Amino acid sequence: MHKNFIYIMMLCCFLCLYTGTANAQTRTISGVVTDNTDGAPLLGVNVTDNLKSAVTTTNNKGYFTISVSANAKSLSFSYIGYDTRNIAITSANTINITLGSSANQLNEVVVVSVGYGTLDKREVSSSITHVSGKDLLTVSANNPLMSLQGKVPGLNITNTASADPNSSPRIQLRGVSSRSAGLGPLYIINGVPGGNIDNINQNDIESIDVLKGGAASAIYGTRGSNGVIIITTKKGTAQSQMFYDGFTSFDYLNNKLENLSAEEFIANRVQNKQGQNYGAQTNWLNEVTRSPAFAQKHTVQFSGGSSKTNYFASADYRNAEGIDLRASKREYGARLNINHTTDNGMFVATLTAAPRYMNTSNADQGNFNNALTLNPTYPIFNNAGKYNFINTGFFSNNPVENANLIKSQSEIKELDINGSLKMNILSNLSTLVTISQISRSGKNLNFSPSTLSSIVNANRVTQTNFASQEQREDDQKNIEWTGNYGLDLGKNHFKLLGGYSYSLYNYKQVYAQNYDFPFDTYLWNNLGSGLYNGGAAGQGQNAVSSTQNGSTLIAFFGRLNYDFDNRYILTASLRREGSSKFGANNKWGNFPAISGAWRVSEETFFKEKLPWINELKVRADYGVTGNQDFGNYLSLLLYGGAGYFPFNGQYYQVYGPSSNVNPNLSWEKSENLNMGIDFSILKGRLSGSVDYYTRKNKDLLGNYNVSVPPNTQATTFTNVGTMKNYGIELALTGQIIKKENFEYTANLALSYNKNKFISFSNDLYQGGTFQDVAGLPAPGSPGNIQRIQEGHSIGEFYTLRSAGVNDAGALLVYKKDGSVVPANQANNDDKQFVGNGLPKFIASMGNTFRYKQFDLGIFLRGTFGYKIFNTTAFYLGTPSSQTDANVLQSAYDSGSKYSLLKSTSTTSIASDYFLENGSFLKIDNVSLGYRQNLNIKYLKSFRIYAAGRNLHTFTKYTGGDPDLVEVNGLTPGVNTSLNYYPSTLQLIFGLQVNF
């Protein structure tokens, strides 16, 4: 039904397009735009008519030509750093104008995406941060959002393995918001919700808008609780342009953990009967490291056309190595955007397609930790020249062998495609239909050979070599239909939006594996030749699996923007949305929002008394958002395998209920309140914003114990919990120095966040008052070291409180009654709250200098006010660590408190003895460039640049780079895995050319 509807709509739209084109009446206007101070021509000035149906830009001589409808009344000329001018269209076909520098930065036409449309920055009444593409950091990263790190107050972007070219960052806005549903924001790419975030080349980004306030996010209903990030890519212009950007990068190990050398191991471990000397000198960490790791990326962009039909096309290639021996990534991407406007300006059609192919070799995230713990006197190869079989230490394997012989690869294909047709029915009335499809296909390939030393040494005859293939497919189809109506009644200005949205999601997965192939050379390409899973051993039931599931989301929404005399602004919106994920009694929900702003600086009394304040806007907003980022079919009664039943000498698979039905399952609800101030003073030399927010997340999802019967299962997935976040955000921009040949601009972003978990229970479902989380792995049984408890914050460490170390080297702790005992004489009842892993403050400062053709950027970033559990010190940092395993140098450093823990009686007992101050300040990014404009036939300008990332970290934390310890999610400040991927210092050298 929906497919037929789409086809009919497309047919009607294109028939109208043909008809409108046939009856076109246009005229062509040309002219030159210059600077009013020196008469120099201005390149790249945006020229558009008041109907928004024609657009062009000036060339390097300031010349423009534009075809406008006969109904057009005026032309608008806008340019960054200059005042916008609106010129009435008369009978003349030539318009020559001059532009003057803007005295007030907020007077620039800064277009902000607000969801289903854009607004002038001055009209925004909710909390939205706008970042231009030119302000993004210079990085060589897998994900373009790493270039946004530290730029937006309240948006925390972390990557615990940034030197892995296949890693992805974790992104969290204004604190943790859920227990069991997704924590990441919703991505909107060119107006399409849910796009592939890694299918974007950073060079293609025009701007990024982060919707933080609930009133802004509420227009996206059940997907808005964690914020919305809107990415707008570059569009075509009438001016023909070609751009190239290419760089190479080199990653070097930085701030790495240091373990004992062979000589130190013999002196400290072997002589104390805590290890053996096998005669070699092996630096295992160096042996599994590729340093420097090399990467290169090349981008070519083309744009051009006319004022009626223009295009933007780009293509990029990236080849990157990881610092571990196995990791690498090769990718090819492209993006094409075509815009066409009919001569009469009635119809505007757009088409965007963005394919990407990625071939990856996946890192072994545990291999560096293997190398840290291995006895350094053990050789890599045996006397026969083959990889040595290692069965001592923590992990009992040869990491060099693993890196070189075990294969883990992926082939990923992505395609984002969308088309839209806009009909300008009247000068103030339009409608827009957008159809889009977002698809991702990933094939995971794994193989381990029969020649592994562990297989050979065990004389294995079954389950020798192993191979698997897995195919995953994600597909999302959308159709959205919106209408916009604008009305000006004197000083009263109205903008009305109404719309409909339909999204269909589908997921498929197929997995197959086998063992015992006749040849290792088959890899994963001949699974049927294996003998174990599908053969006489009768293990076929484990050899294959498959699944398919999907969901549907439908919404109706509307928004009204009103302002009086550009002083009083009011916005109200409502989204009514339904999802197939929800229970039968809660399929639909309403998500209202309201926001208001008062531009105090526009009042006459204010201008007269405080003329040095150019802009002062006070705003407040309230909105209800939702979170439906959880699995499909969780509200339904599902059936699954329940064993085998014998009948007439044969066994039959039995199926029975595997989950409880929950007709009341619903979305997590978030109530958001935000109050803020935007300001600009001293003719725009200092500007910024301050925000205070509270967010109460209700009906948090989780599994709760229920009685059996009447239920078939002991737990039900339902909405119960409540938590709250509140905080303050500050953003400042200052033009410290502004002279003809020298400029210095500083940007400061600061955020403070506080979290409180309120309740695990409601009237229907009664949970406990706490949940223990952050369980540490073996060896030993350390247990959980954090607790989520009512009345406390997420990230609270709940362990024994240390009281020092006794003369025997045993850890001392406080019991519940205050007495001091060795840690092995305490129990779980003696645990206490001892610190928090959730940062209080996150801050950054960007410094941009320009001297003639040179530009210099220095970006500082820091996280403050939290604790980190030093996992590596806990397992590898004491003299009592596992026998025949290597340890950190701090274990035998008299200046380290960990060197005191010599007794094995308290090993593997967690306490706050291993908590350290996680605060750090990082010289995160330094870039230096030189730009030269050229007046030659084939070349307009070029820029060469160099950049450094993660240059130095100021911190008291002794466990390496504190930035590698996750602070997003439910267990901030602790690494619950023994995996370790070192940080790197990254050097980038690049060239940009405009043709």
Provide key terms for this protein:
995 residues; mainly beta; Immunoglobulin-like; Ferric Hydroxamate Uptake Protein, Chain A, domain 1; 22-stranded antiparallel beta barrel; five-stranded mixed β-sheet; 9 helices; 7% helix; 49% strand; disordered N terminus; transmembrane beta strand; SusC/RagA family TonB-linked outer membrane protein; membrane
Please summarize what this structure is.
The protein is mostly beta strands and 995 residues long. 7% of the residues lie in helices and 49% in strands.
Explain the overall architecture:
The strands form 11 sheets. This protein has a 22-stranded antiparallel β-barrel. The protein has a 5-stranded mixed sheet with strand order 10-15-16-13-14. By secondary structure, it is mainly beta. Helix 5 (367-373) packs antiparallel against helix 6. Among the domains are: 2-99, Immunoglobulin-like; 111-235, Ferric Hydroxamate Uptake Protein, Chain A, domain 1 (Beta Complex).
